[in-house]
C-alpha cells in the first residue's frame, strides 16, 4: 500500500497518565487543530483503556491495548501501523513545541505544516527518521537541520515506518540512543531539526517510565542501559562528562552509504 505524507498518523504511548495526557499532549494537539482521526493512544491493558475512555475527551481515533513496558509498547506501535506509513510518536506529557525566534512561552501552532514539511525534507535527504532538539530552551535553537548520526529524542520524532526488526529498539531506557543508532546503521543517516524543541517535564511527572521502573531504580536502570549501549556500540556512543543522569552523547558522524536504498 502506498502512503502519503499528509496522511501521517500520531501514536501516543501512555501509562497511568490519563490526566497528564488530557491536559498536556491532547490539549496541545487540539490547540494546533490536528485532525483527531490521526491520533492513536496506546495503553497497557483493558482496565486502563476503560479508564482513559471515561476520562478523556473524544479527541482521538482509537485507544489500542498493548503491553506494559516502553520497549514492548514501541514494538507494538511499529507493528500496528503499515510498512511505509508516516508515523509521528509523541509522549503523553508534551506541553508544546517551540520554534526558533519566538518569545518565551509561545507554542508552535502550525504543527500540521511542520510535520508535513519535516517528513518531506527527511525523504528528500534519504532519511526515514527525524526529530527535534532534545532540550526545552529556545536559546539553543539555530536554523536548518543536520544529517548523519544524531541523537533523536524519543519524546517527539517522525518515522517512515518499517517492520524491519533490525530498527526496533533493543532496550527501554535510553531508547532514543538505541533507535538513532539502529536507523543510522540501516540507512546511513537520520535527520535532526535544529530550529525546534519542546517544553515538557523530563522525569517530572507521575506514571510513565517512573512508574514502570520504580522511582528509586530509575538512575540505576538508566546507567545500566547506557553501559550496555556503550559496550555494544563503543564507536558511536559515550557518557557525557559530569552528567548526574548518565546522559549519553552520540558521535557527530557524517552520513554514510546505506546498505538498503530500496525504501526511497
How would you state the average pLDDT, rounded?
90
Instruction: Give the CATH H-level superfamily.
Output: Spore Coat Polysaccharide Biosynthesis Protein SpsA, Chain A
**Helix/strand/pairing category:** alpha/beta
Q: What is the approximate shape?
A: globular
Ends apart, CA distance between termini: 14 Å
Number of helices: 8
* Largest beta-sheet details: 8 strands, mixed
Please tally the β strands and state the result: 12
Low-confidence stretches: none
CATH secondary-structure class:
Alpha Beta
Percent helix: 25-40%
Provide the succession of SSEs.
EHHEHEHEEHEEEHEEHHEE
Numbering strands along the chain, what is their spatial order in the largest sheet? 3-2-1-4-8-6-9-7
Rg on CA atoms, Å: 17 Å
